[in-house]
Amino acid sequence: MPRPPPSQFRELARFYDLLTAGKDYAGDTRALRAIVRRYGPGRARTWLDVACGTGRHLEFLRRSYSVTGLDFSPEMLRIARRRLPGVPLIRGDLRTVRLSATFDVVSCLFSAIGHLRSERELRSALAHLVPLVRPGGVLIIEPWIDPREFRAGFVHLVSERSPAATVVRLAVSGRQGTRSRVDYHYLVAERGRKVRHLEVIDRGLLVRRERLKALMEAEGLRTAILVPGLAARRGLLVGRRPSVPKPARGGAS
Can you give the CATH number for the domain in which 117 is found? Predict the structure, then answer.
């Protein structure tokens, strides 16, 4: 298995839900259900969420679908398993994943695809994700920020508090060719412990939505770009896998 991209949440996984407390997962799920009704199979029943993290999207999707999650981080999956007892949660790499099952919907949300390091890795991921989609089903990808919209020098501050901890995250963005660079500085104050300062550098692959659409179509998906997409407003790519052609009826010529 190739070495995975670095994750800022190996040490900070237990604070992930606190840091994303303001994300509208319920609203995202309503939008995703409407998209599947429009672009997906008539009655979608099964859903695989790739790079599912702590399972927040799955928490809402499971109310309407039979769901499965996949993530590379054991720390994130540990939290997801506590949240989603009985839901199949698989440790796997989206660039190399192979499963025996296929699904009506396969999703990769919250710009997880942007953690890939090159277009070669992106092609590998799509080549492995598309076979997981049933004929007639859809692959939904929420990309990283389009390079035309990426703002180098942008500074963003998040501060969240729970009964057990306060976490402050300062992010400063930069750009290096086709890669984004975001320097994260965390201050973590937990009850009974000294304040900790953690630094993480997160690099992302900047790909135009039109290029991602072309790569999905090269894998045989009929793909649409939806803007602005979900609450993060980074757009969505929705690719439908063609249905298996019906066999011709026999009969006398």
Answer: 3.40.50.150
Query: What mean pLDDT do residues 65-82 have?
Result: 97
Model confidence at 192, pLDDT cuts 50, 70, 90, reads confident
Total tally of structural domains belonging to the chain: 2
d(C-alpha 236, C-alpha 142), whole Å: 5
Q: Are residues 46 and 68 in the same domain?
A: yes
251: its two tokens: 């009969």
User: Nearest-CA neighbor of 129 among 100, 104, 101, 96?
Assistant: 96
Q: pLDDT tens-digit profile of 121-167?
A: 999 999 999 999 999 999 999 999 999 999 999 999 999 999 999 99
**3-state secondary structure at position 241:** coil
Domain co-membership, 169 together with 94: no
Contact in structure between 225 and 243 (CB atoms under 8 Å): no
Residues 187 and 220 in one domain: no
Structure tokens belonging to residue 14: 């237990």
Percent of residues in the chain assigned helix, strand, coil, to nearest 5:
25, 30, 40
pTM here is 0.92
Q: What sign results for the dihedral spanned by CA atoms 51, 48, 80, 97?
A: negative
In which domain, by residue range, is 94 found?
A: 13-147+207-240
Q: Are residues 17 and 132 part of one domain?
A: yes
Classify residue 50 by its DSSP letter. Answer: E
Task: Mark whether 71 and 187 lie in a shared domain.
Answer: no
pLDDT tens digits, 193-206: 999 999 999 999 99
